[in-house]
TrEMBL record:
It holds the Pfam family 3HCDH. SUPFAM superfamilies: 6-phosphogluconate dehydrogenase C-terminal domain-like, NAD(P)-binding Rossmann-fold domains. Belongs to the 3-hydroxyacyl-CoA dehydrogenase family. This is 3-hydroxyacyl-CoA dehydrogenase. It comes from Coemansia biformis.
Amino acid sequence: MFRPSSLARAVPRARAFASTAAAQSAIRRVAVIGGGQMGSGIAQVAAAHKHDVTLVDVSQEALERGKGYMAKSLGRVAKKKFPEDAQAQSRFVEEVLGRVSLSTDLKAAAGSAGLVIEAAVENIKLKQELFAGLAAAAPEDAILASNTSSLPIARIAAPLSAERKRRMIGLHFFNPVPQMKLVEVVRTDEAEQQVVDDAVAFVKGIGKVPAVCKDTPGFIVNRLLLPYTMEAVRLLERDVASPRDIDTAMKLGAGYPMGPFELCDYVGLDTIKFIVDGWHKEGQGLAGDKLFAPSAKLDELVKKGHLGVKTGRGFYEY
Ligand code: 3HC
């Protein structure tokens, strides 16, 4: 069974967010669409920085699951914040959770939000429909943002009016959201500078570090991370080394906190396959690029339902 190596701890990492800092941006109310790991992480961090947050999903069950992710993660943060004080820990968790409302009513949630962040499944049609609904419901001056990891923001925004397109950007968070400091702020050609500036202020206000970039495939991090990850899978396919040895090599030889196979399992093999296949098949300027060719090994694991940590088996067993 795989356990994260204690050697990974030697690598300097971003500190957990400072939950007491007041939000610096003018945005008060945030709606987060999608209660999965990413959406609940975004909702948690925004609420911990004094925003009123509505977490939206299609069912009460999905929302309760999202609340469970937040409670667990906040528990870890609280233990570090108040190491000797169990009461202060639970007060902190309750206070942050108290700022997150759960809702299945997308329009009502968007109707009062200054910022809407979509973190639903990576399906272009679904996202376009979602944003059409959000555009109809959100205040005119609200910022609309997608947390997509691989779909072009301009394509998601394609059905929207010119005015809405000017207020639509990407806000790409990283897993685990409460721990990872970076947020990519993705600007389309249509986005107004003021919207980008407001998004940057929001990101700083929730204790994260923004990196502004253009709307190109993979933005910055995934554009560099995916070729690296796929090369690791091809090393395995060519039987150059085992997943364990490749992971050890990259952690101890390159200083990465996780090796590529640990990271694949952590992010989810279905997510990795979705990104790679999308770029390979659909083009987006990367069509046919060998860096993004499908991998038989990855396809086989996904077909068997071995998606990583979340299914108990990926490249490793858990
Ligand atoms: N909530 C709150 N805190 C968390 C957390 C969570 N869900 N998960 C981890 N942490 C905190 C821990 O409390 C601990 O804090 P401390 O250092 O202040 O004590 C710290 O993170 C380290 O956690 P652990 O000691 O439990 O475990 P590790 O040392 O093995 O670190 C890790 C875990 C932070 C996940 C680290 O391995 C890491 O940084 N891995 C790389 C993650 C990465 O690359 N993410 C990006 C993926 S790509 C992506 O998301 C883009 C998408 O589009 C695909």
